[in-house]
C-alpha cells in the first residue's frame, strides 16, 4: 500500500506518493502537474558497513504544462557524518506517464563512532523543459526505521541493522537442549522469550557476568543424573541474558528442575525432578553436547543480528 513501510532486522521497503506542480509565476495559478509513485527497498548487512537501496519511480499521470519531464533521485544520511549521499541513476532521466525508472544507491558507514544511529532522506527532483525548480520532493522512512551501525556487537567487525525490530532466535525441536527451552518458555511464570505471551529476553554482553549467572543457578542444587549421558546443567533463562535467574536474585533451589527425555512415539517427554509450579527459572538435565549447541546458537544469533547489551529479542522453538 502506498505510504506504508515494512521492515525487519536487515530489510525494509516502502513507498510514497509524490506530486509535481507547474505554477505560472505571474498569475500564481497552477497550469500543470504530474503524480508519481516512489518505491524504495533498504538492504542492510549484519557483517559489513555497506548497505544499499533499490528504488523505482513511476509517473502515474500528467496534465497541462507538465511536459518533457526529467527526474533524478538522491538518498542520503541526514547526519552527513554517517554516510555519503548516493544517486539512483546518472543525472536527470526522461520520464513520462506510464514509464518507470529503476535504479539503486550504495552507501558505506563511515564508522566515526563505535555505535551510531542515523536516519535517511530521499530527494526526488522533477523538472520540465524551460521550467524553474522551486522545491524538490522529499520523503523519509518513519522514525522507527532508524539505522544503527556498530563495530562492537561482534568483536571488531562492522555491521548495520534496524534496531527497533526485535529479532527472533529460532531453534529446531531436534534435541533435549531445545526441549528444555521450549518447556521453559511454556511453563515458567514469565514465559520468557514467547512473543505475544510473555516477556522478551535481553542480552547480557559481559562474559564475567554471564559466568557468574551460570554459577549461581548451576550450584549444588544440581546433581548429575546417571541416566542422562554426559549430564550437564542447562539453565534457562540463558546465562547470557539479563533475565538469568541469578540476576533475578534466584539460585538453583528456586528453579524448576527437569529431565528432557528421548522421543517416545515421535514426541519428546519431560520428567519433573522437583515441584515445577510457580518457577521463574529452569535447570535442565541435558547432555553436555546438546547444552553447548544451544549456547552456540545463541552466540551466533547475537553476532548475526548485532544484538547489543540490554537489547531485547524473542525465541521460537519449531
Going across the biggest sheet, name each strand in turn: 1-2-3-4-8
Mean pLDDT: 96
* SSE succession: EEEEEEEEEEEEEEHEHEEEEHE
Shape: elongated
How many structural domains in the coordinates? 2
What structural class do you assign from the helix and strand content?
mainly beta
Strand content: 35-45%
As for the CATH topology of the largest domain, it is Immunoglobulin-like
Helix content: 10-25%
Q: Major sheet: size, sense and barrel closure?
A: 5 strands, antiparallel
Quickly name the level 1 CATH class of the largest domain. Mainly Beta
Please compute the radius of gyration using only Cα atoms.
27 Å
CATH architecture level-2 label of the largest domain:
Sandwich
Distance between the termini: 31 Å
- The helix count comes to 3
Number of strands: 20
Query: What are the segments in which pLDDT stays under 50 over at least 5 consecutive residues?
Result: none
Keywords: Plasmid
What is the structure about, briefly put?
Keywords: Plasmid. The chain has 3 helices and 20 strands. It has 318 residues and is mainly beta.
Polypeptide structure, described:
The protein is mainly β. It has 2 domains: 5-161, Sandwich (Immunoglobulin-like); 168-317, no CATH class. The chain has 3 helices and 20 strands. It has a 5-stranded antiparallel sheet with strand order 1-2-3-4-8, with no helix packed on it. Strands 5, 6, 7, 10 and 11 form a 5-stranded antiparallel sheet that branches. Keywords: Plasmid.
Amino acid at each position: 500500500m502506498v505510504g506504508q513501510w515494512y521492515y525487519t532486522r536487515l530489510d525494509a521497503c516502502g513507498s510514497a506518493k509524490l506530486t509535481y506542480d507547474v505554477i505560472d509565476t505571474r498569475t500564481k495559478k497552477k497550469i500543470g502537474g504530474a503524480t508519481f509513485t516512489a518505491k524504495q527497498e533498504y538492504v542492510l548487512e549484519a557483517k559489513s558497513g555497506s548497505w544499499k537501496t533499490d528504488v523505482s519511480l513511476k509517473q502515474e499521470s500528467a496534465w497541462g504544462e507538465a511536459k518533457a519531464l526529467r527526474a533524478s533521485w538522491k538518498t542520503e544520511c541526514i547526519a552527513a557524518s554517517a554516510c555519503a549521499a548516493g544517486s539512483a541513476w546518472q543525472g536527470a532521466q526522461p520520464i513520462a506517464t506510464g514509464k518507470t525508472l529503476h535504479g539503486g544507491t550504495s552507501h558505506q558507514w563511515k564508522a566515526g563512532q563505535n555505535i551510531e544511529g542515523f536516519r535517511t532522506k530521499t530527494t526526488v527532483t522533477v523538472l520540465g523543459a524551460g521550467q524553474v525548480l522551486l522545491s524538490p520532493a522529499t520523503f523519509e522512512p518513519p522514525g522507527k526505521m532508524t539505522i544503527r551501525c556498530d563495530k562492537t556487537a561482534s568483536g571488531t567487525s562492522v555491521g548495520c541493522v534496524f534496531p527497533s525490530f526485535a529479532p527472533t532466535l529460532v531453534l529446531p525441536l531436534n534435541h533435549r537442549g531445545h526441549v528444555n527451552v521450549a518447556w521453559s518458555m511454556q511453563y515458567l511464570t514469565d514465559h520468557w522469550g514467547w512473543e505475544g505471551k510473555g516477556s522478551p529476553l535481553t542480552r547480557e554482553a559481559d562474559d564475567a557476568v554471564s559466568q557468574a549467572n551460570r554459577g549461581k543457578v548451576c550450584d549444588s542444587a544440581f546433581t548429575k543424573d546417571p541416566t542422562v549421558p554426559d549430564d550437564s546443567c542447562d539453565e534457562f533463562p540463558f546465562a547470557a541474558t539479563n533475565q538469568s535467574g541469578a540476576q533475578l536474585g534466584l539460585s538453583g533451589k528456586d528453579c524448576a528442575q527437569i529431565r528432557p527425555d528421548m522421543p517416545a512415539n515421535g514426541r519428546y517427554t519431560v520428567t519433573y525432578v522437583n515441584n515445577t509450579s510457580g518457577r521463574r527459572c529452569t535447570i535442565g538435565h541435558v547432555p553436555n553436547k546438546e547444552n553447548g549447541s544451544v549456547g552456540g546458537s545463541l552466540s551466533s544469533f547475537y553476532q548475526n543480528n548485532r544484538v547489543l547489551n540490554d537489547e531485547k529479542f524473542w525465541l521460537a522453538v519449531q
